[in-house]
Amino acid sequence: MSTLLALKSQSGGLPISPMTRRRVPRADRATGPRARHPRRPRERDLILLRSCELRRILQILRSLGEGGYDRAAVNSSTISAEKHSWPAAFALVAVTVVWGTTFIVNAEVLGREPPLGYVASRFVLAALVLNAATLGRAATPRIWRDSIGMGALLALGMGAQIVGQTETSASKTAFITGLSVVLTPVVALVRTRRAPGRTVLAGVALATAGFAMLSWPADGGGVNRGDLMVLACAVLFAVYFVENEVRSPRHDAFLYTARQMIAASATLAAASLWLKLARPALAAASFEAKPFVFDRGFLIAVAYMTLFATIGTFTVQNWAQARLSATRAAVIFALEPVWAAIFAAVILGERLGVRGYAGGALVIAGIVVSEL
Predict the structure, then answer these.
(1) What count of other Cβ atoms lies within 10 Å of the Cβ of residue 347?
(2) CA pair distance 337, 314, nearest whole angstrom
(3) Dihedral over Cα of 105, 109, 110, 111: its sign
(4) Do residues 114 and 218 touch, judged by C-beta distance below 8 A?
(5) How far apart are CA 303 and CA 301, in angstroms?
(6) Alpha-carbon distance 7 to 26, whole Å?
(7) Residue 230 contacts residue 45 (beta carbons within 8 Å)
(8) What phi, psi does 266 have (nearest 5°)?
(9) Nearest Cα to 300, choosing from 97, 117, 118, 94?
(10) Which residues of 185-211 are buried (b: 16+ CB within 10 A; e: fewer)?
(11) Distance of CA 363 to CAs 8, 80, 239, 333, 369, Å?
(12) Fewer CB within 10 Å, N or C, the chain?
């Protein structure tokens, strides 16, 4: 140590190599472990940028995990107009198959049962079964807020469809409800600020044309109050699809569906009770005044609709929409009337006709194009 100090004092403060006694330039002196492997400024900048990006991603994931929501999370790749999953797409196709069978089941029941009361009864049973089955599951933050809002939105859409159908034709009801396929990308654009891709929009156009050929009556007809109610249903369903894409990834699919069923059943039961007691000037009020007929057909229909068309379909839908964009899901839902027409032809002996086959082909083409 004393030798080094002496050498340093003789050199005017600069360190000297003991072997060569030459002055070592100050810029070449080692200042610590980093001096052995100096990094270029560009490399340091890249590391800093990557760390900032990583921090941002962690913040978004933490926000979703805590049930929070902000615009940054929506604009991230987690919620994108192009979000896609083949297993989720096939799962939604299976959902449309089940929904296609409900037209036949409901045709046997709705003519003699109060329509809203009948739908409310299946949702009440679904809420009881699902909430009993999910006892002990860990609840995610804000699940009640998300589930209650989504369940009420779903019930309002179904209620508007049922009430509107009593004042318009079944074919017009099917077509106007199908407009949710067109409205979904519009709602998604407003909600998420992300426009669907060209192939998805092309699929929407084809599926909508197929809907028109399948369900729009040949004589057309003017617009009435029932049509406007069903149009409100289509808007509510489009909002439901988009909001479900945003909210379903935050929660367990079973628990999320169970809580939704509570809100949906309460909303539908309240609407049915209001029509029975208030007797407003609506055609649905006279239908809702009918008493329940608890026969074998009613019990079988309620059991099937509860287990398969409510618990099964909505749980799968919530799981799939966490992995699939709302617009893609809406295009797949256009398959529902196709399956309904097929089951009606096979079971009830109804003929589809050239127009029906062409419409079904357009819907399938729309799904294929949107999945490219």
Answers:
(1) 10
(2) 18
(3) positive
(4) no
(5) 5
(6) 15
(7) no
(8) -65, -40
(9) 118
(10) bbbbeebbebebbeebbbbbbbbbbbb
(11) 87, 23, 21, 10, 10
(12) N
Q: Which amino acid is at 72?
A: A
Q: Which two tokens stand for residue 200?
A: 């998805």
Token pair for 266: 């309460």
The residues pairing with 16 across neighbouring beta strands, listed in sequence order, are 23
pTM of the predicted protein model: 0.72
Tokens representing residue 288 in the block:
């809702």
The two tokens of residue 242 are 């988009």
- Residue ranges covered by each domain of the chain: 87-370
pLDDT per residue of the chain (372 residues) written in tens, 0 to 9: 444 344 444 444 444 444 444 454 554 444 544 445 444 545 555 555 555 555 554 554 454 444 443 333 334 434 444 567 889 999 999 999 998 888 788 777 777 889 999 999 999 999 999 999 999 898 898 999 999 999 999 999 999 988 888 888 776 777 788 888 888 888 988 887 777 778 888 888 888 888 777 776 665 566 788 889 989 999 999 999 999 999 999 999 999 999 999 999 999 999 999 999 988 888 888 889 989 988 888 899 999 999 999 999 999 999 999 998 888 898 898 888 788 878 878 887 777 677 777 888 888 888 888 765
